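task queued by scheduler; priority normal; single chain, no ligands, no partner chains; default sampling; output format set to C-alpha cells
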Amino acid sequence: MKVLVVVGQQRLDSFCHTIAEAVSAEFRDGGHEVVFHDLYAENFDAILPHSEVRKGSELDAVVEQHCQELVSADLYVIVHPIWWAMPPAILKGWVDRVFRPGVAFEFGPQGAVGKLNGKRAIVFTTSNSPSEDQLQVSGNPLEEIWKRFIFGFCGVDDFYFRNFASIVLSTKEQRDDWIQEVRKIVRNR
C-alpha cells in the first residue's frame, strides 16, 4: 500500500510532528511505502495562482508532483493543528492547489464526480482548547469539512477523524498514550 502523509505545522517539536512520525514509522514497519510531506519544511507555496485555476493548466513542478502522489496513494493521512476552528493556511492552500479538477474530481453532466474512489483517509488534529469547549462553541466543523467537502467530494468514503486536546494542558504520559492510540488506529486502517 502507498500512504501519503502530509503535516501542516511549522514547529518541528510539535505534537503534530510526533503524530506524523509515528504514523510514518508504523506504516514503514508494516512494509508499506510512505510519501511524507512537511509543508512548512518544504516551504510549500500555498497561493493558488490564477494560471492554475482551470483544469488542464500547466502546473508548477512541485504541485504536479503532489498531484501525482495524491492519485497514486491508497491512503491519505493529514496531520495539523486547529487554528480558529480551521487548518493552517498552508494546508488549505495545499488542498486548493492539489485537490484540483482533473486530478481529484471532475465535473460532468450529473455534477461533480470524485476521482479518488476506493481510497481511504485519516485526519489527525491537535488543539489547545479542551475538546469539550471546542465542541460546545463550534461543534466539529473540521471533521465535516474534511469528511464531506474535501475527501467525500473527491470520492473517498472510508474516512477517520481524531482530534487530540488539550495539547497545552496534556502531560507527557497522556501524549505517550495518544501516540499509542495513533499507532493502533493506523494498524487497524
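post-processing summary
- The radius of gyration is 16 Å.
- The domain at 2-187 is CATH 3.40.50.360 (Rossmann fold).
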